[in-house]
Amino acid sequence: MTIKREDVTTDQRAMRFGVLMVMALLWLPGCAGLTGSPTAMLEPPTPPVLLADASVTSNQASDATEKSSDDPFDPFAKSGEEGLEEYDPWEPLNTKVFEFNRQVDRWVLKPVAQGYNVVMPNPVQIGISNFFYNLRFPPRFFNNIFQGKAKGAGIEVGRFLVNSTAGVGGLFDVAQHLDLKTPEEDTGQTLGFYGVKPGPYVVLPLLPPFNLRDLVGYVGDIALNPINWLVAPIIEVRGVPSVIAHKNRTTSTVVQFGGRVFEIVNDRSLNLEKFQGVEEATLDLYAAVRNAYLQKRARAIRE
Questions:
Q1: pLDDT band at 51 (very low <50, low <70, confident <90, very high)
Q2: Can you state the angle between helices 91-104 and 285-302, rounded to 10 degrees?
Q3: What are the pLDDT digits (tens) for 246-267?
Q4: pTM, to two decimals
Q5: pLDDT for 60 beyond 60
């Protein structure tokens, strides 16, 4: 694959850098998991957002009171789950970046999501979440293939076809009622499957937490999605046409930027109450999020 190189002006470089930074809000650590009682056909699949690992239940809260005051309450941990080694050599810097992300969420994302929530009915928000999840079918499919999971790859194809047709372009998750369910696979999991070590824990501005392995996987998932080079190209491949021509970079930017921001606001709106509950129930949110992330990724690779 050969990436097309063209001379660009300083203004164009600056514009691209700004756009990429804002697009990174898609994975803002302030986002939370879905809550509420979705209707049967609109129940969303597991969304790729940070705080969607588990609900904050009363049992977990009571368990937390029995722990030593030195141990931060982890609202995401499941009972019986073994602790993981938390390799966080960059913790001083990570905590500062984590707090920056929280303030962006507090003063920008959350207020916008609250206004959006007033005008957009919850079932419509869930349908939009389903639609974006359906668009990310290719990375999930390819990573099943890379890990030799033929059944999982087949289920992903089935889900995509059913939800894209009977589910009206993915707005309705019809496939779940046909028992077409499989663990979500990504490039970070594939690297772990082949023995790549996680590396240190990393928190970056306007992005979710990662370890170094999963940060590489995050970039890999972007490259595996044909939308990013066949529809609205942010990756230009010489000789490969796209729906939006490579020369129309402004149009591609608007489409990518608009879609990312729309998904961010929609997901944050769906999770307003849950994330609020997590913040109120957690003494050390940074440690809780770190622990939740490490546990989630360890489970995903074991599966």
A1: very low
A2: 100
A3: 999 999 999 999 999 999 999 9
A4: 0.73
A5: no
